[in-house]
Prior knowledge:
globular
Amino acid sequence: MKGDSKRSLTTFTPEFIAQLRERSSELQEPMRELRGVPDGWRPAPVDPSGILSLFPTLRLKEGYRLVGFQFTSHGNANGIVLAWPADEPVPGPPADQDDDLSPQNFLQAHLQMHLGMGGWQVVNFFSAVVMPAIEGDGSPRSYLEASIFSREICEFGAVWHGCDWGAHYIVDGDPFTVGVSGIFDRIGTELRGAFYRDAWTVEEELPADWSPTVTMTPRQARIEFYTYSALGRETLNLHRDMYTQGNYQCRSNLIRIATGERGYIP
Length: 266
């Protein structure tokens, strides 16, 4: 930024993020076809490493591989991605769905039985957030890619009521002037026309520029981008992620900057 030679600001196009998300959605399409799939855990029919490959500035640390499971229930689904020891075999998911433990805890206990004899603790690998096993090239783009990848992989295999991040759409201009054009679904991309300003309550100062940005200092990287969601209620949101340089785990903050009309319940 001006006046600080050690601070730099890199701006990206909203389309850059939207395209990454659309490619991720296309890869995960086989997990959304649940007709004939029995309820319960199953090995994910999609390799989560394929999602990572969409983000060329990121890579998996040596000694790990990504393993995915999906839990389905009455047409809904959620996924779990593990950063699994590269040399350890991956057991199949548990078949008994009548256990008193929650589905996630039951899967965790099941996998621990297969790791325990080798001294591994499944808690080190069992997480929907695999960023401790991710490293990058240190560029501004790598931190932006980390922010999008972490959200995509956290919602890996999610269907219907399992979705949250999937209901957010990247804002690509002043929504009160041009609307939001990056809304896509299985049919294609559609335009949400200019928002009616009087129907919205502005809670934080609106930006002059809605573009995604990466601010770099010698110690930190700060990612900021904006989304629109109509899940529950229409909202405009600022996503702010803070990274320590060289570490791809972030402190994330979602700031609602404006609230509109009633949305939808999936």
